[in-house]
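Subject — a protein and its fold
Fields — amino acid sequence, C-alpha cells
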Amino acid sequence: MSRLPGVRAADAALFFTRNDPADPRLGERVRDTAYDAAQVVLLGCPQDEGVRRNGGRAGTAQAPAEIRRWLYRLTTAGLDGIALCDAGDTVPLGTLEETHSAHEHAVARILADGKRVVVLGGGNDLSYPDCAALARQAGPVAAFNVDAHLDVRADRPRNSGTPYRQLIEEKLLEPRRFCELAIQPQVNSPVYLRWLREQGGTLVTLDRLRARGVAAAAGHALARAADAASVFWGFDLDAVRASDAPGVSAPNPLGLTGEELCELAALAGAEPRTRIVEFTEVNPAFDLDGRTSRLAAVAIHRFLSALAAA
C-alpha cells in the first residue's frame, strides 16, 4: 500500500489466519489487499488524551489493536466484492491538537483517493478531525452521533465531549444536518440540550428511537439531510448498555442493545453517501472477555456486509 504520512503499520500478529482455504478469515483478506486496490480503508488512532481531559477512564488507546484482534478473526461471509485495506494507526503526537491535525490529514488523504474510511478510536474527540476532513473534502456533510452523550460541551481546551460543538462553531457542520441518536437525558446537561435544540439539531432519545424503530428514526434524519453530499457516522460504544458493552469510558446501565447497534451500522453501510464510520470509546482495560471489542468488530462486519449488498 502507499504510505500515509504520520501513520504506522498495525501489528502483523493481529491479522488472523486459519490457513484453511475452506474457512477464509477477514485478516487474511485484509493482509493481502493493497491500498490502491481498496474500496474501504481502516485507520486507527490509539490515544485517550481527550478522554483524560474530560475526566473519563483512560484505556481507549488500547482499542484499535483489540478491535482488530476480533475483527480479523471473523469470516468473509457476505463480504464478496469488498476490498478492505488496513492503513495502520495515526501516530499520537505531543498534544491532542497535534494528534488531531495529523489524523485529519491522513483521513483527508484517504478520502481524496476515493475510498471510504473505517476509523478505530481512541476517544470520541476523534469525531472532530474525522468529520472535519470529510466536510473539507466532500461537503456539505450530514453527521450522526450514536451516543448516550451530546458531545457539544463548551470546554476549553478540547476533549472527548466537545467535537460536535467545535464542528458547528467552525461552520464545518450545519446543525440541521446533525442528528444525535440514542441520547439519554440523565447524562446530559439541560444547558447543552437547549443549546443544540436552539441551533436546529435533531435529538432522538433512546426511548424515542425505540418507539419509532431504529430504521425509521435514522431514515427520518437522513431525509432531513437529503441535500448533504456525504454522511459521517460516529458510533460511541457507551451508547450501548453495559451488559452488552462493559468496556467503555463511561458505562451506562441502559442503552442500545448490541443488536440495535449493529442494525444502525448496517444502515450506515446501506446509505450510498456514507464515507466515514467511526467507532470510539471502547476501553479494553475495563472489558469482560473482550465483549465490547467483539461487539465493535461485529458492527464493522455488518457495515461492510451492508455496503457489499448495496
